[in-house]
Amino acid sequence: MTTQSTPFPAATILGYPRIGPRRELKRALEDHWAGRTDEAAFEASAAQVRRAAVTRLRDLGLTEPAAVPLDFAHYDQVLDVVLALGALPARLATDPEVAPLLTEVDGATVQPLPLAVEWALARGTTAQGPLEMTKWFDSNYHYLVPEIGPDTPLAYRGSRRADHVREAAALGVAGRPVLVGPVTFLLLAKAAADAPAGFDPLDRLDDVVAGYAALLADLRAAGAEWVQLDEPALVSDSWARTTAELASAVGYAYAALAAAQERPAIFVAAPYGTLPGEALEALAGAGVEAVGVDLVKGELPDGEAPDLGALTLVAGVVDGHNVWRTDLDAAAERAAALAALGAGATTVSTSTSLLHVPHTVADEAGAPLLPERVAGWLAFADEKVAEVLAIAAGADGAPDAFAAARTALADRAGAPGVVRPEVRARAAALTPSSFTREPYAVRRAAQEAVLDLPALPTTTIGSFPQTAELRRARAALRRGELTEQGYEDAMRAEVASVIALQEELGLDVLVHGEPERNDMVQYFAEQLDGFAVTQQGWVQSYGSRCTRPSILWGDVARPAPITVPWATYAASLTSAPVKGMLTGPVTILAWSFVRDDLPLGDTATQVGLALRDEVADLEAAGIGVIQVDEPALRELLPLRRADQDAYLAWAVAAFRLATSGVAVRTQVHTHLCYSEFEEVFGAIDALDADVTSVEAARSRMSLLPAVAAAGFERGIGPGVWDIHSPRVPSEEEVTELLRLALESVGERSLWVNPDCGLKTRGYAETTAALQALVGAARRVRAEIGATTAV
Ligand code: MET
Ligand SMILES: [Zn+2]
């Protein structure tokens, strides 16, 4: 047992953005991957990003020992555990590019695995795909999914975290290393492809715990007084194991870790929701020294208050997952309520890592699309550090901070645009008919008559390649080197060439190509009332990828048509039908920072209404096919089963509100990508779109039999080209996929399209792949002797 000498800091954060205030890590990674820098240069850049973060946090006031989290990952925090335990799936461990890099563990000296192994796992090798990537809890961050089987190595091989502890110490900072905890690591893993049926990665808990025990000893030897192990899995009940089983697994795992001779004091954090009382009790009983609970997204642990003894409870009262300034009075009250549970001590932190928010509001000075008044309501990572310190100091200790927070809060509540009576009244007046179209059979007949499409109609998902030229035009506009008119002319020329290309290729339903959109959400946010856009507000999405979420601060309305001029211009150039293209309400919310002063479902209704206006204007302008993309439909799915139905109900309602105001002859499409289609199939069906396109190429149409079995009768376009890879499919391959699809989908319902938009692809591949797609559709039409379809 450790003799805990350093108390847990009174104020801390669970983690800090890793990408760097100017996305330095992104650049370092991409330069290195492109071969522009060697490993040493990359390591030096990464170290610079880390050291800058550590000194920044110290300078912001996290001066207590163990107050600065050391959570730096080159690529991903789950991948870091895979590396620390050498948990490579056999398919990668035996890959000729990887095998020579794996030395035997000799027990005495541990050496973190070389960078090249990390890139092989994250990005794949010539022969092997990377680890699968998926969403991290209910956030927009994506982690790499470990593949664990009965024989996957799980022995400690060394971790860079130990070096990070020494590196911080050299800067005079006693940092607190942060890692994903053992139970969450195994729950996030999937069974390796060669594992026997029924194998569950959690079966390997003993081995993983042994690996972590060695890791903790290493961290202690490096000088760490505390370690943070993140166990967000505990707040979710969407696992194959019950809450009671999880509580017993953590109790078991942490009792073993706590019993180790040489270790730092253990802080277990449970962000993203409510920590069940059983889990808290298990952790307290296991002998860990501190437990963090999320009191923003979650509630106080439920059930009878367990005997907490000397345990420190860490109150996550500053929202790590959103950008609003904290109501410091309310936060202090929540921390006090936690203290009332009778722990040895109660301290203050963020609710989650600050990984999900940008670095600092100070970088937004002069942001053209962020009103100064709105900026005054925001707190990004650095501002949230100040907030945890203020709450720890209390209203008496930090009177100015509390007063400033009260002023900002009052200003926000009363500012024009936050509550717009006309928007609220319109939402309140909705009736069931606002959400319902005529029966599908009626729509189908009307659409067949006006659209006159062949069987297996071909189309694309919306975007065409975003060429360097388009990006240059956007940059020139931003710098004032191109006039609005000049920019618009350039975009119209692009639309004309995209239409000409599609006609030449012989596609059936055309698109304008979305050249004018910088991003499928931000583009709409820039033109809707109620949204602001940052200039430096980047957050990591995965690896080197960042997004810049818009900020939804007020009631939403559409002051003027957004996409209508583009769609009608495109339609004027062709006699083929042109599909109008909109981003759906749920996706707009999922990829923005949303307000915390209105239920999300109400905000979704407002966005749905704004889009309904756009849909109506498109229809009135003669656009007969309208696609409303909802790739993020599943992203906001609550972690607790009891909350999921209510979410899906408002998510579906918002889509239907946007799309159900049109005539029967207008064909509504929707598009979803990402693989968890099956999980929310009922909701997708309930969207009641006339045509639904989904990602399906990589899985070779595997979702279709279930779709057919569920009696789905409307149009469906399973992707036949995996646009995430530069590989161009042959006409033969696409033909095969279409034949496969026809085993489940009727010939009158099957559409032919790529998996997703083409904005990341080049023109050479796009042209070749679409040729294959059109050719394959024609072949299969001839095979089945079909002529007409929807
Ligand atoms: C992530 S879904 C993208 C849909 C959008 N219409 C596009 O084609 O790019
Ligand atoms: Zn997509």
TrEMBL record:
Pfam families: Meth_synt_1 (PF08267), Meth_synt_2 (PF01717). Residues 456-778 form the Cobalamin-independent methionine synthase MetE C-terminal/archaeal domain. GO terms for molecular function: 5-methyltetrahydropteroyltriglutamate-homocysteine S-methyltransferase activity; zinc ion binding. L-methionine binds at I461, G462, S463, E514, D629. Its EC number is 2.1.1.14. It is an enzyme of class 2 (transferase). One of its GO terms (biological process) is methylation. Keywords: Amino-acid biosynthesis, Metal-binding, Methionine biosynthesis, Methyltransferase, Repeat, Transferase, Zinc. It comes from the Bacteria. SUPFAM superfamilies: UROD/MetE-like. 5-methyltetrahydropteroyltri-L-glutamate binds at K26, N140, R545, C546, W591. L-homocysteine binds at I461, G462, S463, D629. Residues 11-339 form the Cobalamin-independent methionine synthase MetE N-terminal domain. Zn(2+) binds at H671, C673, E695, C756. Binds 2 Zn(2+) ions per subunit. Pathway: Amino-acid biosynthesis; L-methionine biosynthesis via de novo pathway; L-methionine from L-homocysteine (MetE route): step 1/1. CDD domains: CIMS_C_terminal_like. Its cofactor is Zn(2+). The active site is at H724 (proton donor). InterPro entries: Cbl-indep_Met_Synth_N (IPR013215), Cobalamin-indep_Met_synthase (IPR006276), Met_Synth_C/arc (IPR002629), UROD/MetE-like_sf (IPR038071). Catalyzes the transfer of a methyl group from 5-methyltetrahydrofolate to homocysteine resulting in methionine formation. NCBIfam families: PRK05222.1. This is 5-methyltetrahydropteroyltriglutamate--homocysteine S-methyltransferase. The gene is metE.
